[in-house]
Amino acid sequence: MLIVPVAHLLPSDSMATKVTVNNHGPLRIEGEFTINDPSGKEFGLAGRTVISLCRCGASENKPFCDGAHNRAGFQSVCEARDLPAPKPKV
User: Which residues share a beta bridge with 21?
Assistant: First the structure.
């Protein structure tokens, strides 16, 4: 399983990072960010400031979206909501 730290923010003069959960599709990330594999190695994004990450699991280019959600009939509607407060650490 690939765990992706979605947004590693850069200094304050950088563009803010925005993550959009697309219905029936990928996570779209816009702004200044890095994406790393579990060992901390950074993916080379070739200067991209917009990418999409696969949510359906069918992409041949994981963790990036290749449009496979359309062929797979992926269905997922995500409406924004407030998360509960984190549980206290014991």
Answer: 27
